[in-house]
Write a structure and sequence with these properties.
Elements lengths: L2 H28 L1 H5 L12 H29 L5 H22 L3 H26 L1
Helix pairs in contact: 1-3, 1-4, 3-4, 3-5, 4-5
Length: about 130
Amino acid sequence: MPIELKMLAWTLVLLLVQIFLAASCRTREAGLSYNAGPRDVASRVPVGKVTGRLARAQNNLLETLPIFMGAVLILQFAQVHNATTHWAVLLYFWARVVYVPLYAFGVSYVRTVAWGVSLVGIVMLLVSVFRAAV
């Protein structure tokens, strides 16, 4: 299996980890009965800082994941696997891994740099997609 597909699979694992982290923090704050219940507005328990940050980091991954996934799959179908695509998927994945604790701990500017690095990975993939289309 090419590295691009492996890193796509690991990114999906990262998404599951982020879902679990946010959900487990929310359960710890609000209790199992609240989190397993209907979460009606009248009984809403406030979200804590870390839980909110983890949820926002998860949402941020969900915003870029379709672009990453689409580019990786297009490259797979086009059978394009080279140094650029190799480094692009590594940049995206590892920047997304670093992003989670940076966001959870409230590290503002470094977190933005990590996000930017992940975006560079996506741009590299998209450039490879359009080069393959020529």
